[in-house]
Amino acid sequence: MRRLTKKKALTLVKELDAFPKVPESYVESTASGGTVSLIAFTLMAVLAFLEFFVYRNTWMRYEYEVDKDFSSKLKINVDITVAMRCQYIGADVLDLAETMVASDGLKYEPVILVFLTFLSFTFRTLLHIQERLRVEHSLQDVLFKTAIKGALPAQLQSEDSSTSLSACRIHGHLYVNKVAGNFHITVGKSIPHPRGHAHLAALVSHDTYNFSHRIDHLSFGEEIPGIINPLDGTEKVTADSNHMFQYFVTIVPTKLNTYQVSADTHQYSVTERERVINHAAGSHGVSGIFMKYDISSLMVKVTEQHMPLWQFLVRLCGIIGGIFSTTGMLHSMVGFLVDVVCCRFQMGIYRHLKVSESMTVNLPLLEADMSICTGQRGSI
Fold first, then answer.
1. Residue 186's CB: how many other CB atoms inside 10 A?
2. Is there a contact between 78 and 218 (Cβ–Cβ < 8 Å)?
3. What would the pLDDT profile of 127-143 be if each residue is shown by its tens digit?
4. Shortest CA distance to 246 belongs to which of 259, 236, 256?
5. What pTM was estimated for this model as a whole?
6. Which of 212, 188, 184 has the alpha carbon at shortest distance from 112?
7. Does residue 380 lie in a domain region?
8. Which end is more exposed in the chain, N or C (fewer Cβ atoms within 10 Å of the end residue's Cβ)?
């Protein structure tokens, strides 16, 4: 009973076979079929190889939501070199609430300011990348992917003991409230004041004013090596002593999550403006470098994504099955058209020779060929 049940079950399974096998004695291999198979296998291998590269590739997904974190501090990372002596200038931050932020995290280092626009290949490359980033926004995705954890490399400053250190490098970081504010570098050291703050500029001669500067680095939030900020590498040169440089910065909180780094940082956009201070001509203001920043209420989540394995396998099966089916159909169609053309050609020769009496000897052979051709067309 058990054997009969097994035989019935096996017979039922065989009847459900959707892929019946053809005996080898009924299979005929042809040169054209082999050529098509070779082309099909080659195309499958090439497309599967390219599909693997697509599977290895990643892309950045952007999501937007309201930033609900207003209690934390905002870190400002600064590295600016000004063409004035350190004892003549001061840097600090005054936020929208008229709160003066202590600049204890900033260091003043006497250096020599050498403008690198036409001297340094690295600097020219940085400026070229900055220019392309303004046009090709997709390059930012490449920078996100190459970002790594760790400290930024130290900035190289040229020093020469035989030359006077006539410039000042201000570098370090500040922690400010997450409200709009004004980071500025102007004449004189800053002192606290009941109505805000003030700078001791009366003791500095106007002849020493020179706010030509280079911004080696300016970022907000966590420092991430590999990320190029809009103001990195900016150089401004002026021949006028009373000159005001203004940078209007809009900061966007950003959560970066890639396969190499996960960090809470900030992106920003900037608008630049500069003018000469001339009170007689109605151009009022204070000489210096002013960076007025505002923080966006929206936060951007940037996540690096990868194609799932199951999707790669489905696409791979689609490539193999599609090419196999398509080449089989094309081979059958081409074979059918070749048979039709051959039959037409043989029928034409048969009619021509039947009229000619001089070649009646070959008629039986042609009639045999015609019978075969007619049988092939009938089977088609």
1. 19
2. yes
3. 666 666 666 665 566 66
4. 236
5. 0.66
6. 212
7. no
8. N
